[in-house]
């Protein structure tokens, strides 16, 4: 689905963030990316979307080498980019409208989802009138509805309270299992990464030359109870330790 082959990238004349990074993602996989702040996670997403291009190396998306990636992925950036002049409903409907759906049908499809997302009653509000967590849910909904086979989610649930976060995780997994989209998911939350993913990529070195890769030893469907499984608890401890070491360095 996605392959980086020896990708090197730095911003302007600054030091490289990625150095000869290679990895592959199979169709339908759910991958989480963890690593301390500033390690290059969001940069990887900007390269996948085509907002930035590698200085050397190649990126292949769905069999197409380089270029032509803009508009081919569903992307939720770390800063939600809701259009301030559109209401919640109009923001959420955007991907459906772009796909050519009539406004009325788009609204009919979105309204129940807003309800499900705890956003009922906000449909006619503008983004500036919403809390951070609410804006995040609208941006998340919009990215998922883009219908692209590759979904990039950059810390999509970071501003949510614990209960809402669990509900959103479950919604995402249910949808992912139904539609077999491929998901790349950046998070700070190790438990979230373990619950959601097939594999976890950890960024440890700077510049990033490779990932430390963790295969999550859980089948599907999963339940929260699986997180208490001794093997998972041990993995969690291991991940936290590695991330802590990174921060101390
Ligand atoms: N537009 C930019 N111009 C210059 N430097 C940037 C830009 N965006 C990010 N950086 C730098 O690149 C590094 C990696 O950033 P980023 O990918 O956002 O990290 P992460 O998402 O892991 O927190 C950081 O040192 C950051 O300061
Ligand atoms: Mg980031």
UniProtKB/TrEMBL annotation:
Output this protein's name.
ABC transporter ATP-binding protein
Q: Which GO terms describe its molecular function?
A: ATP binding
Q: Domain of life here?
A: Bacteria
SMART domains, sorted: AAA (SM00382)
Instruction: List keywords of the entry alphabetically.
Output: ATP-binding, Nucleotide-binding, Transport
* Segments forming domain ABC transporter: 2-230
């Amino acid at each position: 689905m996605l392959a980086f082959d020896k990708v090197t990238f730095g911003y302007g004349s600054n030091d490289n963030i990625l150095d000869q990074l290679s990895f592959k993602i199979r169709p339908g996989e759910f991958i989480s990316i963890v690593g301390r702040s500033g390690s290059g996670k969001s940069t990887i997403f900007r390269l996948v979307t085509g907002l930035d291009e590698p200085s050397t190396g190649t990126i292949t998306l769905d069999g197409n080498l380089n270029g032509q990636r803009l508009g081919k992925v569903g992307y939720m950036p770390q800063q939600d980019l809701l259009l301030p002049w559109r209401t919640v409903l109009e923001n959420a409907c955007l991907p459906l409208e772009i796909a050519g759906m009539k406004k009325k049908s788009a609204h009919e499809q979105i309204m129940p989802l807003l309800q499900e997302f705890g956003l009922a009653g906000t449909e006619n509000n503008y983004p500036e009138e919403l809390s951070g967590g609410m804006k995040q849910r609208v941006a998340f909904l919009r990215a998922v509805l883009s219908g692209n086979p590759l979904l990039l989610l950059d810390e999509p649930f970071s501003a949510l309270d614990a209960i809402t976060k669990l509900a959103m995780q479950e919604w995402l997994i249910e949808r992912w299992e139904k539609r077999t989209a491929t998901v790349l998911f950046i998070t700070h939350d190790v438990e979230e990464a373990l619950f959601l993913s097939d594999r976890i990529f950890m960024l440890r070195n700077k510049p990033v030359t490779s990932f430390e890769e963790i295969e999550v030893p859980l089948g599907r469907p999963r339940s929260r109870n699986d997180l208490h499984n001794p093997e998972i608890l041990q993995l969690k401890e291991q991940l936290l330790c590695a991330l802590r070491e990174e921060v101390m360095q």
